[in-house]
Amino acid sequence: MSTIEPQDNEGKKPMTRRQLLASVGAAGVLLAAGAGLPVKVQAAKSTVPVTDNKPWYNVKDFGAVGEGLYDDDAPYIQAAIDAAASKGGTVYFPPGSYCINRGLIMRSKVHLLGAGAEVTELKAGDTNLLMLFSGGGVGSYSIDGITFSGRGPSGATGDIVERGIHMLEGSHITISRCIFTDSANGVRLVRSRHVTVTDCTFLRILGSESPTEGFGIVLEGGSNHIIKGNHFKNVTKSCICLNAGSSYSLISNNVMEQCQDAAILMSSKLSACSYHLIEGNLVTSEGLQESASSSTYGIRLKDACSNNTIVNNVITRPEKGGIQLEAGDNAGDDRPYGNTITGNTVNGTICGIAVINGDANSVKHNEVRRVQTGILLNTAGEGGSSSAKRNVVTGNSLYQCSVAAVKIASAQCESNSVFGNAGYENAEGLADSGTNTATEGF
């Protein structure tokens, strides 16, 4: 089918936002204002971007049907995206379910706008689709108010595995008010910069034994991202994963429940994940049976993770630990270093906060309740890198710790400082097997 731009009444040029609303009459005016519409459709009122001076392209004008699994709408949607790319503009998806049997290729300066994620759906018609893909150098685009519905895990490995959005070396991109559901993965950002993901929902992100399936959002390298105000529920692996030397990102005010791995995982070797701010996130056990866990760990930093700040997070009933910093035996320089853990609340787990084979980390002013060990410093393995040195544990409030409020578990934990901590109903205050532990500070 040839690409045809939607025409105004004179048939001369693409419609502007004003002309599009005029063409659909009073209903269009109400849609823009969000008045007099059902609740689900009203959700779209905040998704209208400031694009009055850019043309709008309705995917149905290009041949998309939006009626489910029986028609492949991908060629027509792609035609609309390509038409918008010539000048920059908005590609609009009216309410409907748009089946795609191949991945869509995003272009710079194009804005994808649904009528609200509750009523506009992109549905994968085949397995292992990168439902929306952008390659190197593509940026300055946005995606707003669309549901990405996948086919679920296939056991595939590598880059060709189902994802709602896969972004390679993109920049200045916004993803907002979208839903990712029944998919093997949600969003993956590879060596990208300045990407914002806000107010999105990740529901039933279903993995398999494949190491590349089951993640909500993956930040692989890159920097300066904002992942804020998203909701994750029933995620097989981690809700948010930072790896491959990513840096300088804000992970804030996200809600995570029913995660089967660490809710937030930071893991890297050789090139450190550094200078991230992980702030105000909630890992909750709401709605779970008493014996069920919200996650394996609330927040887990593995190997080369340095100078990150973990602050004011609330973590309830993780299976193994609230916040854990760790490195394996013979890690060398690939160990957690210089991280700050402060103002967090951990409730109901085996270990509240642990530093294992990590150096010069600060654990201060946290509150930990109903655990076996409140704060643990320990080593793993027998090699020369099996040590935990110069960590500071101070000003923490520790309650109902059945083993110890603070435990230094190995003589290879050297020159750590533990002072100014308080609490009650603990089996022991400080259980110290370390070397040269300082129990008074300055």
TrEMBL record:
Task: Specify whether Secreted is a keyword of the entry.
Answer: no
The chain positions of domain Periplasmic copper-binding protein NosD beta helix read 292-381
Query: Which UniProt key words apply to this protein?
Result: Isomerase, Repeat
Q: Does the keyword Lyase apply?
A: no
Q: What is its EC number?
A: 5.1.3.-
Q: Where is the Rhamnogalacturonase A/B/Epimerase-like pectate lyase domain?
A: 56-264
Q: Where is the signal peptide?
A: none
Lineage top rank: taxon? Bacteria
Q: Which GO terms describe its molecular function?
A: isomerase activity
What is the name listed in the Swiss-Prot or TrEMBL entry for this protein? Poly(Beta-D-mannuronate) C5 epimerase 2
Annotated source species: Paenibacillus konkukensis
Give the lineage: Bacteria, Bacillati, Bacillota, Bacilli, Bacillales
